[in-house]
């Protein structure tokens, strides 16, 4: 590359480095689980989306292994050419049954589900109302669409109502929100959103990536948790978190909308099908969730224990019930240092700073799993106390 061109990018990298914000990847040499091996050392993992511990569950692995033997490795095609196996259709039906929706369409990721949704279903005549803290993939999906965009202040129902009231001229309206906000573990006020949507004749779309399999009756997500089953028109979700943790995503909801996505949604039409091993393993994960409530119960108990422990130590956390626990620090360098000290002590807990969270809201985001034992969590609390004192977040004793 031309030297002057290269220097443009190098300056940006230097700027990030000067701020102490360079993200480093730490390669893991083991399966994803409560304990992982990094640089030949076993450490406790507190930052995976492996909420139910299914990423390395024997039954899920066995389902994947069987699919590998009987259906092969790759599809080498998009769905509508020759990339649809019985396993794909079976998983789509399984998700619809699980979420109590009419129809489901699979994507390579939830990012794709979100970017393939809005531009397919909405046009210049329509309006989209989006929470300011929605996930990047919803934001990008809305950017690709020609509909008028309205951003309402985070979970502010008065602001949403005001915007909806003034947008009645549009042909269609849709409110789009995360079910659980991924940086905060905060559950969206879905009952109020559905009420407003009904009053002002709007559709509702919920990205439930961080709630499917975890929250609500039977693990049916934030929609079940908030008591709005049947009132949400479109649900997007990932197979990359509680549902086995590999990759893949979906949109589930009203049949005509899903049928239209299957005809026109660009990431669905122009990107390969998920491999058979994922289709089979994700279905097994959903079957396990439906038949084994103890996994979810253990996750919720572990979460309550760890939240209580952090608060007792004096950390400032965002309150709630979700296994995402943000420990607020507010300074990027101190947050990075805390993560480094924890790592040395055998705890993998990553620092989050701008642009992943707003400036001044730097944090360590912990994610609890059903795979964690009580001993793991006690050990983690001890290390958080030590690190908090050494970095100056907690007062020394
Ligand atoms: C709310 C939300 N939506 C979508 C995604 C993207 O999911 P996937 O990894 O399946 O693309 C994520 C993942 O971080 C997420 O947190």
List the helices and strands and how they pair.
Blueprint: H1 3-18, E1 35-38, E2 41-45, H2 58-71, H3 79-82, H4 86-99, E3 103-107, H5 110-115, H6 118-121, E4 127-131, H7 136-143, E5 148-152, H8 157-165, E6 173-178, E7 180-181, E8 186-187, H9 190-199, E9 203-207, H10 222-225, E10 234-238, E11 249-253, H11 255-264, H12 266-269, H13 276-291, H14 293-313, E12 324-328, H15 332-344, E13 347-348, E14 351-352, E15 363-367, H16 374-391
Parallel strand pairs: 2-13, 4-5, 4-6, 6-9, 9-10
Antiparallel strand pairs: 1-2, 3-11, 7-8, 10-11, 12-15, 14-15
Helix pairs in contact: 2-13, 4-13, 8-9, 14-16, 15-16
The chain binds pyridoxal-5'-phosphate.
Q: Give the distance, in angstroms, between the N- and C-terminal Cα atoms.
A: 55 Å
Assigned CATH architecture of the largest domain? 3-Layer(aba) Sandwich
Which CATH class of the largest domain? Alpha Beta
What's the alpha carbon Rg, rounded to whole Å?
Answer: 22 Å
Beta strand %: 15-25%
Report the strand count: 15
Helix content: 40-55%
Number of separate structural domains: 2
CATH topology of the largest domain: Aspartate Aminotransferase, domain 2
CATH superfamily of the largest domain: Type I PLP-dependent aspartate aminotransferase-like (Major domain)
Number of helices: 16
Q: Reading side by side through the largest sheet, how are the strands ordered?
A: 3-11-10-9-6-4-5
Low-confidence stretches: none
Mean pLDDT: 96
């Amino acid at each position: 590359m031309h030297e002057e061109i290269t220097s443009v990018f190098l300056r940006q990298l230097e700027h990030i480095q000067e701020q102490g914000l360079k993200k480093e990847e730490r390669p893991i040499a083991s399966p994803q689980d409560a304990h992982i091996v990094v640089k030949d050392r076993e450490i406790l993992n507190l930052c995976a989306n492996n909420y139910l511990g299914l990423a390395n569950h024997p039954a899920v692995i066995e389902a994947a292994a069987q699919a590998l033997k009987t259906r092969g490795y790759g599809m080498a095609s998009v769905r509508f050419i020759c990339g649809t196996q019985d396993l794909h259709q079976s998983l789509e039906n399984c998700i619809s049954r699980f979420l109590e929706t009419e129809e489901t369409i699979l994507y390579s990721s939830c990012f794709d589900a979100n970017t393939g949704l809005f531009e397919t279903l909405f046009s210049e005549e329509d309006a989209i109302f989006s929470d300011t803290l929605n996930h990047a993939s919803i934001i990008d999906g809305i950017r690709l669409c020609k509909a008028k965009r309205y951003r309402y202040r985070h979970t502010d129902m008065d602001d949403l109502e005001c915007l909806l009231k003034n947008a009645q001229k549009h042909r269609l309206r849709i409110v789009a929100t995360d079910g659980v906000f991924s940086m905060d573990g905060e559950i969206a006020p879905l009952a109020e959103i559905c009420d407003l949507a009904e009053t002002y004749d709007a559709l509702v779309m919920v990205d439930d990536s961080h709630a499917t399999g975890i929250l609500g009756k039977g693990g049916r997500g934030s929609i079940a948790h908030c008591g709005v089953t049947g009132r949400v028109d479109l649900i997007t979700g990932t197979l990359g978190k509680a549902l086995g943790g590999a990759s893949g995503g979906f949109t589930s909801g009203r049949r005509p909308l899903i049928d239209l996505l299957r005809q026109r949604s660009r990431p669905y039409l122009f990107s390969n099908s998920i491999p058979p091993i994922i289709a089979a393993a994700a279905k097994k994960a959903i079957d396990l969730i439906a038949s084994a409530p103890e996994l979810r119960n253990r996750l919720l108990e572990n979460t309550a224990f760890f939240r209580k422990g952090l608060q007792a130590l004096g950390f400032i956390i965002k309150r709630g019930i979700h296994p995402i626990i943000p420990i607020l620090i507010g300074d990027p360098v101190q947050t990075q240092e805390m993560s480094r000290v924890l790592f040395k002590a055998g705890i993998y807990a990553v620092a989050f700073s701008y642009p992943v969270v707003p400036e001044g809201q730097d944090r360590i985001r912990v994610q609890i799993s059903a795979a964690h034992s009580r001993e793991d969590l006690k050990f983690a609390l001890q290390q958080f106390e030590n690190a908090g004192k050494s970095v100056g977040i907690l007062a020394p004793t």
